[in-house]
Design a protein that fits this description.
It is a single chain. This protein is an alpha/beta fold and about 240 residues long. Helices cover about 45% and strands about 20% of the residues. It has one domain (about 1-240): Alpha/Beta hydrolase fold, catalytic domain (Rossmann fold, 3-Layer(aba) Sandwich). The radius of gyration is 16 Å and the shape is globular.
Length: about 240
């Protein structure tokens, strides 16, 4: 059964929508692709792909609007503004969305699995690395992890704080100690529009800080598209949820 809810986010200064599928199980937050909304994963049959896990009560699935991704995609206003929105989006996840998920699951301090494809993989990795007290694992599919190509000038502080490619090398004790008890899977095909080099570069950054991670190559038959992610997500949730 699907449930949708909306509220005004003071951090993003706009209305946001969250969708949920399932009644019980490990909470999984799936970030949409750059232009997507909270129901994108249903339209592209990703929810159907994990239906056995939903029906058996293994997982409870959540998704939200891609507020920051749309801003990058449309080139809205200045790149400084877009970086600010990206940082604020992660703050919304931490301070609004995770508390909503915990309340919905009736479990304070519950850890969430983050997942996503393309820029959704970037967000899944970023929220795990920024908020390891809220997330246990990140399932990153066909990820793009360095967004510098979207900048029209030097990186801003908002961009730095939002980008794991930039802030993870400088993490210190505290959150880093917690993060070393988390896990990241970086999965990618090597077919059309895929760049597994992005995953290997991110894996080296994580590995240098002793953050557990694994790169999985799916080979040249798998391309940057929904059929790939419909195969990846149930596999990894079956292993990790």
């Amino acid at each position: 059964m699907k449930l949708s809810t909306s509220w005004y986010s003071p951090r993003l200064e706009q209305d946001v929508t969250v969708a949920r599928w399932g009644e019980v199980g490990t909470p999984v937050l799936v970030f949409p692709t750059a232009g997507g909304d909270a129901e994108e994963i249903e339209r592209f049959k990703l929810v159907d792909a994990v239906a056995p896990l939903l029906e058996s009560g293994r997982i409870k699935l959540y998704s939200c609007d891609s507020v920051a991704g749309r801003t990058w995609l449309r080139g809205e206003r200045t790149y400084q503004h877009r970086a600010w929105i990206q940082n604020q989006f992660h703050q919304y996840v931490s301070h609004e969305l995770v508390p909503y998920i915990r309340h919905d699951c009736k479990t304070p301090d519950l850890l969430v699995i983050a997942a996503g494809a393309s820029i959704g993989a970037f967000n899944a990795l970023a929220v795990l690395c920024r908020f390891p007290d809220a997330f246990s694992k990140a399932i990153c599919m066909s990820g793009t992890y360095n967004l510098e190509r979207f900048l029209e000038g030097p990186p801003t502080l908002d961009f730095y704080y939002a980008s794991p490619h930039h802030f993870v090398p400088h993490l210190k004790a505290g959150s880093l100690d917690v993060l070393r008890h988390r896990f990241v899977v970086l999965a990618s095909g090597e077919g059309r529009a895929e760049d597994i080099g992005e995953s290997w570069r991110m894996a080296r950054i994580l590995g240098d800080k002793r953050i557990p991670n694994r790169v999985d190559s799916w080979g040249k038959d798998w391309v940057h598209d929904w059929p790939t992610w419909r195969n990846m997500l149930p596999k990894y949730l079956g292993e990790l949820a």
